[in-house]
Amino acid sequence: MRIAAVDDDPAQLDLVRAVVTSMGHDCHLFPDGTSLLRVLPRETYDLFIVDWELPDMSGPAVIRTIRNMVTVPMPILMVTNRSDERDIVDGLTCGADDYMVKSARVGELRARLMALLRRGGHALPPPETAWGPYRFHPQERRVWVEGEELPPLPAKEFDLALLMFRNLGRLLSRGYLIETVWGIEADISSRSLDVYMSHVRSKLRLRAETGFRLVSVYNHGYRLEDLGVAQQAKTA
């Protein structure tokens, strides 16, 4: 998963990064609200950790802006020094999903993040999943389309395809796709990603005739669309 944390305390950011990376996730750190909101239109994250007192704006203002900018509901954890009941109520009311008073309790932070990720749909996946005519078996890395098993896909193509189906309808940034499939230190160009996605589109026949279409969104990333759902929305 890709987690964004905004805090003006470098020590707190170091603690958050240590916890997040120990859980096997990628962590992106921001010293103020403006720097996070600036990249939000072109980047994708799975969870946000927001401090209340920031140098440029309040944490609640950052959270409200995230809710307005990100159409897919994303879990948000507010981590702050404020512990009054009124502050906790205000923090949750502004859009945070959970509220934690700052401390060195690493275990509590890890547990809260795990709970939020589960609530956000990031629990361990089932051994086999299906979307319309597509069926995936992640452990054996096998894919069926309309009952026909496809030839084995290269590892990264399989991972990209499964990632897109698990985020059906969600616009995923190029950075998100590269970090999730290749890792945060990967040296993969946007052009190389385009080649991989072209292979995924072709081999899985992600076009209108199968009911699912893989589209490229200029200057951002990719989205897998369920055309059946889109058609229902038009006729509703």
Strand line-up in the sheet with most strands? 2-1-3-4-5
CATH class descriptor name of the largest domain: Alpha Beta
Report the C-alpha radius of gyration, rounded: 19 Å
Query: In the residues, how many domains can be counted?
Result: 2
Mean pLDDT: 88
The span between the termini is: 34 Å
Oligomer: single chain
Q: How would you sum up the global shape?
A: elongated
Structural class: alpha/beta
> Helix count?
9
The percent range for helix content is 40-55%
The helix-strand sequence is: EHEHEHEHEHEEEEHEHHEEH
Main sheet: strands, sense, barrel: 5 strands, parallel
In CATH, the topology of the largest domain is named: Rossmann fold
Which stretches are poorly predicted, pLDDT < 50 over at least 5 residues? 232-236
CATH-assigned homologous superfamily of the largest domain:
Response regulator
- Beta-strand share of residues: 15-25%
